[in-house]
Every structure is written in structure tokens, then in C-alpha cells.
Amino acid sequence: MSKNFDVVVIGAGPGGYIAAIRAAQLGLQVACIDEWSTPEGKPAPGGTCTNVGCIPSKALLQSSEHFDHAGHAFAEHGIQVKGLAIDVAQMLQRKDKVVKQNNEGILYLFKKNKVTFFHGRGAFAGGSAGAWQIQVSGKTADVLTAKHVVIATGSNPRALSDVPFDNKLVLDNAGALAINETPKKLGVIGAGVIGLEMGSVWRRLGAEVTVLEALPAFLGAVDEQVAKEALKVFTKQGLAIHTGVKVGRITAKKNVTVEYTDSAGAAQTLTVDKLIVSIGRVPNTTGLNGAAVGLKTDERGFVVVDGDCKTSLGNVWAVGDVVRGPMLAHKAEEEGVAVAERIAGKHGHVDFNTVPWVIYTSPEIAWVGKTEQQLKQEGVKYRSGSFPFMANGRARALGDTTGFVKCLADEKTDRILGVHIIGPMASELIAEAVVAMEFGAASEDIAMICHAHPSLSEAMKEAALAVDNRTLNL
Ligand code: FAD
Ligand code: NAI
């Protein structure tokens, strides 16, 4: 087998495997190296996203939502459920099966696109622009030569400085996705995306969940009106969310005790069976040997790249969580495609202004573009239109009327500047707003488009109509 490649991609998460596939589609000889293994030691490409991130968390969110509906929503539909119980082992097995299907899907895609896959760790072993040597250490040891290298090594969970993860009592994301029985009391440090998604899973299954957040504001990056509504709903669901806390000593023995100061300055103690620490993630360049070849990283450990994902080294690129920007799978994928196209002499492009965010709680939260607070801070004059799901026929039929859609448009030009949704299927609804913004649409454009009835998407149309004070159904 030839060990000379046009492109060697290190890491097969969403950034890396997509870059490898696109580069191969463009006619380049491509290798992709990834070290993630199944418990049996087999390759498990897909990175954090597939193995301990997006996919398994959504699998558990789905299972726990079914359980919650069976327990709380079915009766209203006249469906009686007797002897409702959750089999956590079966739920985890299903999640593992979904993960495995995705791992196998990626291996299949590599084969189909003629990407040579190496299972092991990739590290710079020398060379220079146009002829980099990459050492693969796995079951076999190979040295590959690459004209271009794409670093897509992702990120790791950030631990509290004096409390290491043991994934028995103090859990990172991997541990949070593998809890094998519903804890009576669950603590979560960090009311960010992971904290809220995983907190929701275990709350729905019956755990008493307490979330401790350092910042005074809940979901500070989210549009304030949405964050306010979310806090109200999550609190009603039973998540005890405390913001503005200062976490102190944590003791993990039989259970976990968290000493903290609350927002009023009073000393508090929380005792829980398990503690999820979800306080952000750090870029991962472990074992890459980048420093030896002069790869520049910043003070926080991110690989330094320019707007085109070029690193400080010739013909070395970096994408995804290991570089600046939001740590999102679809952002990593877009960068992966753009880099592959640039390597092939085409014009790759990523529009950071239209990267959507989704929090898969119930209700879901999704947004794209600017929040009202950002627009105010930037002195941009805008008009805002909102529409509640309460007034949407499909939402009423679904029995899921929480939340609203909000559309923000430039006061003069009417160009859409941001769309914020909290409500059913927000993750799907936001796509329309992304398309609209990518095409430079005005709110009037959405308002004038025919939307199917009855559908949740009509709430988007109505929010756009509301920008011009002409909602029809409210
Ligand atoms: P990763 O997915 O981290 O992949 C990096 C890969 O590189 C890994 O397989 C790693 O083993 C491998 N690797 C690292 N170093 C080497 C080396 N030297 N040699 C060989 N292999 C190496 N994002 C969303 O958009 N939507 C979601 O719903 C979502 N949910 C999430 C839920 C959780 C619990 C978590 C933790 C994250 C979630 N994310 C979500 C974020 C998403 O997982 C990341 O943004 C995404 O995985 C980043 O992709 P990546 O390719 O940059 O890195
Ligand atoms: P996060 O950045 O979303 O949230 C971390 C939270 O912890 C913040 O609110 C922060 O203020 C708080 N915090 C930090 N230090 C603290 C401390 N010492 N005490 C108390 N609170 C503290 O990070 P999270 O949830 O760990 O997720 C990491 C990343 O993974 C996300 O930023 C996101 O990019 C990605 N992700 C995306 C998902 C999605 O798209 N649906 C789902 C899950 C993760």
C-alpha cells in the first residue's frame, strides 16, 4: 500500500472525516487517522460527536422524552399507561447501537470514497511544506508522507482545577452518557449546553437535578427573552438552577458534596449521588507533536489559524473544535469541506454569521444571527416580531405550545439579522432562517412565502409578519 498521500487528515470527528471524504471526492489521495476505539478495541471513527457527544446525547434525550410523554402527556390523549418503568440498561444499549451504526457508516463512507483509514494516533514526525511525515502509532506503525495535513483533533472536557473526572462520581460528558441507573440526586456544574441537555435526560427519568452556574445570567449567550422563558420552563420541569454561584470544595467519596456560595453570598452545601461537570471544553493537541515542527497554538491551546483555516505551517490546516469559533459539529464539517476545496484549488467558504445553534432540551432552543442584546450593544436599529406557538394550530394539535419564534430585522432595509426560537422542533425550524439569512432575505420575504398548514413553520412566517405588525393569527 502506498504511504504517500496528497492529504493526511488527523482525527475522524465531523471536521476530519468530512474533510477526508470531500478531498477524496475532489480526486485527491487521502488518508485519515483516528485513534478512538470501541470497548473491544475496534476503530470508532466519528470523534466526540459520534461517540460521546451529539449522537448519544440525542439518543438519550429521545428515550427520556418518550418516557416523560408516557408518564405525563399520554393521558391527555386518552392513552392509559400502566406499570410505566424505565429500563436504563436497555436505553443505554439502544444508545450504543445508534453510536455503532454511525461508526460503521463512517467506515463504509471511507471505503466508498477511497479514503485510506488508519486506526491509531497520528503525530508529526518531521518534514516540511509539501512533504510532511506523519507517524501512525496503532496496531501497526506506519510513516505516511503528506503534501497537505489537516489537523482535526477536536476537544476534551474541561475539568475543575482540583477535581479530576473519575467517571464514577464526578462525570464528564462520556460519564454523563453512561450512568447505568437513575441517580436519586444529580448535581451539574455549568448551566451550558451539556448541563441542560444531560440534566434534562436524568430529570425526566426521575432524578432530582440541581444545576450550579457561575455566571449571574442564565444562558448569557442566548437572546434574553428566550433565556428568560427557558429558565421559567426548566424550573417548572423540576431543574433547580442556581446562577451566580461560586463553587468551592468538592469531596467525592461515597457520594459527592459540593460546597458553594450562592448569589446572595451565603454558604451552601449540595450532596448528590453523581456530579456532572460541564464547564466547557478545551482544544486537544495531545500527542500530535506539533510543537516539534513549530505548530503555533494560542494561550488557551487552540491551533492558530487564519480565516482560511491555514496554520502557521505551510500546507498544514486545522478545523473544528481545535481552532477558534463555536465548538459545533456542523461548524467543524463546514470548515472540513472548505479546507478540502482549498487544497484542491477551489474556493472554500464558511459563513460564521449563519452558523445555527441548537440546545436539544424540551422545548428546544435554536437561533441564528444576532440577539437583541448584541444589536443594542452594536447600536444597530432593528424591528422585532414574535409569534407564540400557543397561537399555532399544529403546536396545539401536538399538545406542545410552549415558546415562540422571534425575528429581528434591520429597521431600514428589513434584512433579517437574527432569528430566535424556543419551542417544539426548533432544531428543524431554524433551518429556514439560516437559508433566509444566507440569501440576504428580508423579513418580508419569509412573510410572503406560502408555508404549509397546519405546520410549526407557520410560526416563522407569522413572526416575520409581526416585524411589520401584521400577524394574521394573533
Ligand atoms: P472531535 O469530534 O472531537 O473529533 C476528533 C477526533 O480526533 C477524535 O476521534 C479523536 O480521537 C481524534 N484524535 C485526536 N488526536 C488524535 C491524534 N493525534 N491521532 C489520531 N486521532 C486523534 N455539536 C453539535 O453541533 N450538535 C450537538 O448536538 C452537539 N452535542 C454535543 C453533546 C456533547 C455531550 C458534547 C461533548 C459535544 C456536543 N457537540 C455538539 C459538539 C461536537 O461534538 C463537537 O463540536 C464536534 O465533535 C467537533 O468535531 P471535531 O471533528 O473538531 O472533533
Ligand atoms: P458551555 O460553554 O456550553 O457551558 C459551560 C457553562 O459552565 C457556562 O455557562 C459557564 O459559565 C459555566 N461555568 C464555567 N466554569 C464554571 C464553574 N467553575 N462553576 C460553575 N459554572 C461554570 O460548555 P459545555 O456545556 O461543557 O459544552 C461544551 C461545548 O460542547 C458547548 O459549548 C458546545 O459548543 C458543545 N455542545 C453543543 C451541543 C449542541 O449543539 N446542542 C450540546 C452539547 C455540547
Summarize this structure as a short list of keywords or feature phrases.
single chain, 474 residues, alpha/beta, FAD/NAD(P)-binding domain, Enolase-like, domain 1, 3 domains, five-stranded mixed beta barrel, five-stranded parallel sheet, 13 helices, 21 strands, 31% helix, globular, binds flavin-adenine dinucleotide, binds 1,4-dihydronicotinamide adenine dinucleotide
SSE inventory with pairings:
Blueprint: E1 4-10, H1 14-25, E2 30-34, H2 47-52, H3 54-73, H4 88-112, E3 115-128, E4 131-138, E5 141-151, E6 155-157, E7 170-171, H5 173-176, E8 185-189, H6 193-204, E9 208-212, H7 224-237, E10 240-242, E11 246-252, E12 256-261, E13 267-272, E14 274-277, E15 281-283, E16 316-318, H8 329-343, E17 357-359, E18 364-369, H9 372-377, E19 382-388, H10 393-398, E20 404-410, E21 416-423, H11 426-438, H12 443-447, H13 457-467
Parallel strand pairs: 1-2, 1-5, 2-3, 5-16, 7-14, 8-9, 8-14, 9-10
Antiparallel strand pairs: 3-4, 4-5, 6-15, 11-12, 12-13, 17-18, 18-21, 19-20, 20-21
Helix pairs in contact: 1-8, 3-4, 3-6
Bound molecules: flavin-adenine dinucleotide and 1,4-dihydronicotinamide adenine dinucleotide.
The site of 1,4-dihydronicotinamide adenine dinucleotide has 23 residues, from helix 6 and strand 17.
